[in-house]
Design goal:
alpha/beta; binds guanosine-5'-diphosphate; SRP/SRP_N; Signal recognition particle receptor FtsY; membrane
Length: 303
């Protein structure tokens, strides 16, 4: 239900237009496909993905000898799910959580996308599942970032390992990993600085942070989650490319899906950059985070 509610704006934009299109056309012709193409691009599905979908749809219409535009509508959702799942359903959802010992999750992404909020929400989720959680204030660059993480820590009831503003993020990570190990914590969630202005610096900082974590815990970090703001549309694609170059991104958290009519960006990220969306943010509150599910997502666009 939450998932569906979060997609209200996208659904109104997308399926409203598709319904209108289907109502206006008597037959499935080239003009029909051209209008459909525009609707999909308008929902930020991404150019390459739209082209692929339209090609697939044309083939299917031919194969099944579909004449009625209304029939195309159900094929659209089928094909959207197919495109999303092409790269493997099993790796698309869920996190790589260690059944025994510490799991370290690193969060990357530019400022303002909702990184701190997502860390707080996930901390709450893990705590609810009975796991012990610790937070690492690795964004020592942005003024207020440490305080903000502490506010979430208090709200959720988990400790934050920190140093002063301007300190070395790798040193904070070192402290955090040590603390997590000695306290026998299940999950360590690590914030990082989100500056993109200088890609070389970003890369160096992330590499250093990762190296410290790896040295203390072989195999860690177990996830590197890139947090993206769905309302930034195609910009989110560019950010994904940049962060993929800087570090090994294992999954995406797409925030503010509730605030955009362009939720099609999920498909573009998956299909064009081959990174699975693992969670979506559907609001500002503690429990406004949902595990991503491609079928629920696609059917939420229509139903
Ligand atoms: P950070 O700079 O990346 O750490 O971003 P913050 O966590 O401070 O979030 C920036 C703003 O986005 C805050 O006002 C959050 O409440 C808001 N926000 C974060 N996630 C979501 C979401 O899923 N939906 C909505 N509507 N707002 C969100």
């Amino acid at each position: 239900e939450k998932f569906k509610d979060g997609l209200t704006k996208t659904r109104d934009n997308f399926s409203g237009k598709v319904n209108d299109l289907v109502a206006r056309y008597r037959k499935v012709d080239e003009d029909f496909f051209e209008e459909l193409e525009e609707i999909l691009i308008g929902a930020d599905v991404g150019f390459e993905t739209v082209m692929e979908l339209i090609d697939e749809l044309k083939l299917e219409v031919k194969r099944k000898n579909i004449k009625d535009p209304a029939e195309v509508q159900s094929v659209i959702s089928e094909k959207l799910v197919e495109i999303y799942e092409k790269a493997g359903k099993e790796e698309q959802s869920g996190l790589n959580i260690q059944s025994d010992g510490l799991t370290v999750i690193l969060f990357v992404g530019v400022n303002g996308v909702g990184k701190t909020t997502t860390i707080g929400k996930l901390a709450h989720k893990f705590k609810t599942e009975g796991k012990s959680v610790l937070l690492a204030a690795g964004d020592t660059f942005r003024a207020g970032a440490i305080d903000q993480l502490e506010v979430w820590g208090e709200r959720v009831g988990v400790d934050v390992i920190k140093q002063g503003e301007g300190s070395d993020p790798a040193a904070v990570m070192y402290d955090a990993v040590k603390a997590a190990k000695s306290r026998g914590v299940d999950i360590l969630l690590c914030d990082t600085a989100g500056r993109l202005q200088n890609k070389v610096n970003l890369m160096k900082e992330l590499e250093k942070v990762k190296r410290v974590i790896e040295r203390e815990i072989p195999g860690a970090p177990h996830e590197v989650l890139l947090v993206l703001d769905a309302t930034t549309g195609q910009n989110a694609l560019i950010q994904t490319k940049t962060f993929k170059e800087a570090t090994d991104v294992s999954g995406i958290v797409l925030t503010k899906l509730d605030g955009t009519a362009k939720g099609g960006i999920v498909l573009a990220i998956r299909n064009e950059l081959n990174v699975p969306v693992k969670f979506v943010g559907l609001g500002e509150k503690m429990d406004d985070l949902q595990e991503f599910d491609s079928e629920k997502y696609v059917y939420g666009l229509f139903a």
